[in-house]
Amino acid sequence: MGGQRAQVIDEQQGRAAPPGAPAPVGPPPELVFKRRLRPVQVAHELWAARELVRALAERDLRARYKQAVLGFAWAVLTPLALCAIFTLVFHRAVKIETGAAPYTLFAYVGLIVWQFFSNTMNQGALSLANNLSLLNKVYCPREVFPLATMLVATVDMVIGVGVLGLMFLVFWTAPAATFLWAVPLLAVQFAFTYGVALILSVAVVYLRDVRHLLPIITQMGVFATPVAYPLAKIPHRLQEVYVGVNPLGAVIEGYRKALLYGEAPDARMTLIAAASSLVFLVGGYLVFKKLETGIADVA
Amino acid sequence: MSRDYPLGTIRTEQVWKRFRADQQRMLLRDRVEQAARRLRGDRGEDWRWALRDVNLHIEPGESVGLIGSNGSGKSTLLKMLTRVMYPYAGVIDVRGRIGALIEIRAGIHPDLTGRENIYLFGALLGLKRREVAGRFDDIVEFARLGGAIDRQVKFYSSGMQMRLGFAVAAYLEPHVLLVDEVLAVGDAVFQQRCLDRMREVAEQGTTIVFVSHDLPAVQSICRRGVWLEQGTVRVDAGIKDALAGYRDSIEAQSEASARVGEPLQLLKYEVRGEDGDDTTLHTDEPVTVELTLGGDYRGDATLHLGVSEGTSSPIFQISHEIRLTGGDHRVACVIPRLPLPRGRYTLWTGVYSIGKTDGGTLMSWHSAGQFDVFGPMLDTPPRAVVMAAPVFVPHQWED
Ligand SMILES: Nc1ncnc2c1ncn2[C@@H]1O[C@H](COP(=O)(O)OP(=O)(O)O)[C@@H](O)[C@H]1O
Ligand SMILES: [Mg+2]
Hints:
B: 399 residues, Rossmann fold, Coagulation Factor XIII, Chain A, domain 1, 2 domains
């Protein structure tokens, strides 16, 4: 004889499952898995994944700057070209009034912020969808993918700021002493951008055709945001609502005031923008973490 | 509620996992349609269970073979253990660092070089750069990557990717090592080295879960076997019992697939021992296999006879030319000394016409049935040494 045949067992639970017995149709509802997020643990995991963020960003940058001149030109020329067009159209033709600051500088400040946002959206929204095979292999907090693309966009932004410095020279002015206001504004800008990138990136995994809508959104956004014109062009009583929906409006306006006009950013608008960005960030993060659990199932 | 389990413990409690059964295209368009259907009261959702009520408790240092047919949920379970996937219900708790080789395309990122991948993987496991550097040479040496280590992983052959993936998983000192059925991509030499390495880490106290269809390999590594069938744990026992149960069930399935419409049928078969009355078979003693074939085919043909353990490839195969005359045909074969140790075996047979290259199948190769052999058990080989087939060799020791 071939030895003792194994029996159908489930000894640990002391329940025998006789062969052929109808299997239960589902788990008892109280067992259904619910994700619990512990902020400390989440922060710890994100910190542990910093190498991955760096490597992902580095890979993108290296691919882009393989031909250093072209890569650099890409980061510089796009905003410069837009800036030139805006100067022609909005300054010469539409005659946007920018007071003491040269229009070109005025528009360029807005374009830096806008380019940062749209770069992060264009790359970040696809960051999960493009890495699906990886998501099925290793565990890591998935928010590192949009984060890495934002890091890449940040490098482009730094180059853009360098060009801004050159422009200050060309126009022979200096940034106003109030430029330190840029620091809190930067935080608002990052929070909003990351929040939206989180939502879009996970949305594209579940709704693949959303990616076709992205270019439309970013192309319309440049006109829907006060990049070429001041925030004041938006009807006064709608401004608060507008900034609540699109905090970038207040951020750009704030940068201009701090860098070009030597004024403090409008406190009320900035606070609304900050609150709204926080909602986008936290809300986006929660949505992301909730949907994250199913990504491998549809990958 | 969560007790403090030691590093290397794997615990799943009442784990359920389901997938969409209807094929999904993941499009906004479809979702809108779906929502419209739902408004009309049609739920339109169809789920299928991939795992049902899986309870496992694996202690640190245990080596568990996870077996089961395709689609039984093995990979799904491993993915949930690595936290790549989440359960629908239940608790999954894996303590400590996890080294996993779940897909062939290992490595973290195809665009990064082998070297970068190794460091990145270490970082994800929570190792410091210095700690990875200390093991770097071992990994490269084990994976036999040599100069390719500074090439992008996407240019590696699948064998190289698997080697890198295994080396990384097995050398970064995980507390838990999970290996899915990917080792088969490597050549035989590398497979053996992987098994050796698994034995090594097992002896160092790493918990191992090993999925493979290479049952002898599983047996050589694992002490415990978990047999999954249609998403439920059918058997959780010692590896021998689990494998025996699994093999029996595959055999039962393969017998069920009947061959109809072939020119020859196997009417009867008998495997008997020395004595006419005593039908039990004994190791190293004479055995007679007698077959009766029916069918109206006339002509010369080759009769093949094989014996296997489980449905794997035969332990031995013998053949004989026969002349068929249209009626029932009886043929017997005597094996003077049966070279099989104690166990249950499957008898296979097939008949093919001579001289025709195609269409020559008179009775296709199939398992006729099983027989048990009594006699000595085989001696156990050292761990991680795979025995291709059980053969009893009469022998005598002298010292
Ligand atoms: N992402 C997925 N979406 C839908 N069905 C899936 C998915 N992954 C696995 N399945 C299904 O779950 C079952 C178990 O699959 P798997 O765990 O890969 O089995 P195994 O590894 O044992 O061959 C199969 O029926 C398979 O089709
Ligand atoms: Mg599998």
